[in-house]
Amino acid sequence: MRKIAILGIGQTKVDEHWDKSLREVGGEAAFLAMRDAGMENVDALYVGNMLSPTISGQNQLGAFLGDWIGLWKQESVKVEAACGSGAAAFRSALMAVASGDVESALVVGVEKMTDKAGRDVTAALAAAADADYEAEQGVSFVGINALVMRRYMHEFGWRHEDFAPFSINAHDNAMHNPYARLHEKITAEKFERSAMVAAPINLMDASPVGDGAAAVVIVPAERVRRKPRIVVAASAAATDTIAVHSRKDPLFLQAAYLSSKQAYEMAGITPKDVDIFELHDAFSIMAALSLEASGFAERGQGARLGLDGEITPKGRLPVCTRGGLKARGHPVGATGMYQIVEVTQQLRGECGETQVDGAKTGMTQNIGGSGASILTHLLQKED
Amino acid sequence: MRKIAILGIGQTKVDEHWDKSLREVGGEAAFLAMRDAGMENVDALYVGNMLSPTISGQNQLGAFLGDWIGLWKQESVKVEAACGSGAAAFRSALMAVASGDVESALVVGVEKMTDKAGRDVTAALAAAADADYEAEQGVSFVGINALVMRRYMHEFGWRHEDFAPFSINAHDNAMHNPYARLHEKITAEKFERSAMVAAPINLMDASPVGDGAAAVVIVPAERVRRKPRIVVAASAAATDTIAVHSRKDPLFLQAAYLSSKQAYEMAGITPKDVDIFELHDAFSIMAALSLEASGFAERGQGARLGLDGEITPKGRLPVCTRGGLKARGHPVGATGMYQIVEVTQQLRGECGETQVDGAKTGMTQNIGGSGASILTHLLQKED
């Protein structure tokens, strides 16, 4: 595939933006990315979003956002893969530029979730699961993840408190990210004592929803003179059954395994070469499963990396260096694009207190549903 | 761009499929396309759909449908551009294969609209318009089109009955298409006397919604030995403002003009070389505007082609040869894929009574919203 570079990035704070509409939140990230890229125009717009039809009564987010930001003629489209929508839009844009039919693209992940009551949001999120065989039976999205976490703890002998390091690291890192939703350090004690959501998942295992947008401008790498140049070393996607109960092994993220394996091959690297991993910690259990399926830990041993202190910015494999879904926040269809923006910031060396020294290769992994759609991207710094 | 061929096609009847779920309707078209292509597997799945989150409580239609049809590992994604979702999914798949990252793709347009009450469907369709500045003010989607039609009639001096030939032709042609929703010939008298929906649009100006799915399998052209080989000669997309009132000229489909112009250039042809045009007659007014913007009629003279008998299968520019949106039916996110399937049938010479003799070049034009997202494709027959 044609080599592609990330020329500009932009993001809004993840928050309850009650004073801003869907178009304003998306537009803010888009304008920042265009300005950062030094471009006034692009050939195409790709929007990642999951909930605008149900929460905002708005479809056709490509034309909708293009209209707002002044792309009145250019092609645009919305790409959706539940909570994996952001990375899915990024991958569609990559293939468009790689095909040669498009020379530059703006990719925006945007979500507006706090304009409706919590119960409406919970119902809208349930559409990421199987409507007929999961949601219709009354199990919420967090409920599905709780069943997986309970089984994992039983199967591999972990206690709930063993997952604390994932959330503590995320909250620690978010302290230094002005775009993060939560700026509050947490302790192991707070992790254990938080209110229960769906046992064994409590508030500190679960990521907060929010309004937010993150965007990038991509172009063929040969057009980029700026140093360091941030290039896409690999893009891969895979799927699994939509319902967890259909899987032979509900504790193994097949789509993470397949997409990360393909990404490593494409980039010609191994997991050891990954300097940062922005993983999809929608729930702490997903952090553990993602680490295992992507080759960073043995089966059932994902939690070990947290306990051994390897996931902090000074550790062997820093994860969630800007706060992750847990503390930066999880505006679902935007999350995958926040991950791409954050790894780009790391490779550019713009992360201050949580900068990972000498980072050259960063990985993102964006998960749709309870593991049904998973996209893995590798970004690299070229000096 | 790498040359791509359509190897297999499949479709369901557009109908009220109350006995079939969303996955069954989509699966049926998918299986038919795979069988027609003689393939048991593909690298990727692209799904065009607009309403599943609001009507069926189901997101992530890529993984959802992939699961049902046995693509348990392959990447998949949903692409959405309101009623232009079908062609948008097709174009995303084309670029994926053109990029070289994917060697074969299944594209399915699917919609399930009749499981909810009519008022819920009307509300869900309003999300194709601008939620803040059109829908929120109480104007329905047909209402917006009615305003456009009224203005057009005023501006260019047409009477309502002058639009009758579009609907009569569509109904005539649908008589010979077993997949069409309506099998009922209509007369000019019936056209004029039908129940009013939103003046001046009556039931005979408006396309019926429905449940349905249409699918194709695409591969690089060099892999296809079958004769005739149906190839994609051009793919182009463009946009306009999402709200009609923001346009300098609400009677001109800028995105149809831009995307058709680009498609002609890409294929190296002129409108005169087009043998069949499957246009987006969601309302009779859109048929007229589409013909004008795509270079087949002067401004304000689109209705003339119908009156002069040029749009029938024996005419100079046959349109809606399988019934169009008006009589084949308009399962919104699937419509663009029905158009691709139908032009393929024409180029293969499989259309019986409505076969266009010697058809070598066919065009499809799929419209999202009231002209905000428009995709134009040119297919050609290679003997």
Please describe what this structure looks like.
Two copies of one chain form a homodimer. Chain A has 13 helices and eleven strands. Chain A has helices at residues 22-37, 52-56, 61-69, 85-99, 118-125, 141-156, 164-174, 188-193, 254-267, 284-293, 302-307, 324-328, 332-348, and strands spanning 4-11, 44-48, 75-80, 105-111, 196-198, 201-202, 212-220, 229-239, 276-278, 361-368, 373-382. Chain A has a nine-stranded mixed beta sheet, sandwiched between helices. In chain A, strands 5-6 form a two-stranded antiparallel ribbon. The first copy, chain A, is of the alpha/beta class and 383 residues long. Helix content of chain A is 36%, strand content 19%. The first copy, chain A, has a domain at 4-117 and 209-223: 3-Layer(aba) Sandwich (Peroxisomal Thiolase, Chain A, domain 1), CATH 3.40.47.10. The first copy, chain A, is globular and about 55 Å long. In chain A, helix 1 (22-37) packs across helix 3 (61-69). Chains A and B meet through helix 2, helix 3, strand 3, helix 4 and strand 8 of A and helix 2, helix 3, strand 3, helix 4 and strand 8 of B. Strand 3 (75-80) of chain A pairs antiparallel with strand 3 of chain B.
